[in-house]
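User: I'm putting together notes for a lab meeting next week and I want to include a structural view of one of the chains we've been expressing. I don't have a solved structure, so I'd like a prediction I can at least talk through. The sequence is below, exactly as it appears in our construct file.
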Amino acid sequence: MPEYDRLEICHSPTLAGLAKASATVIWRKPDSEPEFAWEPRGFWVNEGPAFIAQAGKVFISYSAGAIVENYCIGWLYADKESNFLDPASWQKCAQPVFTTHRLNQQFGPGHNSFTRNEQGEEISVYHACNDKTIEGDPLYDPNRHTRIKVFHWDDEGMPCFGEPAADSVRPLIAPGR
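Assistant: Thanks for the context. Below is the predicted structure for the 177-residue chain, given as structure tokens.
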């Protein structure tokens, strides 16, 4: 059974070696409790950690708030040389970095992960709804769909997500795909 209250990093020079590689816990759910007004809107939760490193820093994105309109993405970050298990090593952004965009009809972007496209650009893979109306339990709402977003880094090494694109905007796909 996977553990969803922590983020672990394993290192191996080969993919097969990861099966026997020792894991280092770099984030535990209790280390990031809602503390800013935007985080506990609807639900008292910081969840879905995802890790990325850039320019001497490590970042952990997390989702906060209730599903749909209040759900959003926040950041924790630390110097790559710091002790990741020491809560004092981490800084937390006071504002969410990716939020609902009503004009684009994108509600509650969150629970993301990171990858790169074939051009080497950073991609955030996340879910959001195109309607803020929910009937029943929001965790089972069929309006949550997976989306992707290219993002960039600013001159200070911080991520810039911009805004969630409308469903009518197609993501860039490599030629021939």
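A couple of points you could mention at the meeting. The beta strands are 6-10, 23-28, 46-54, 57-64, 72-79, 91-92, 107-116, 122-129, 144-153, 159-160. The chain has one domain: 30-160.

User: Perfect, that's what I needed.
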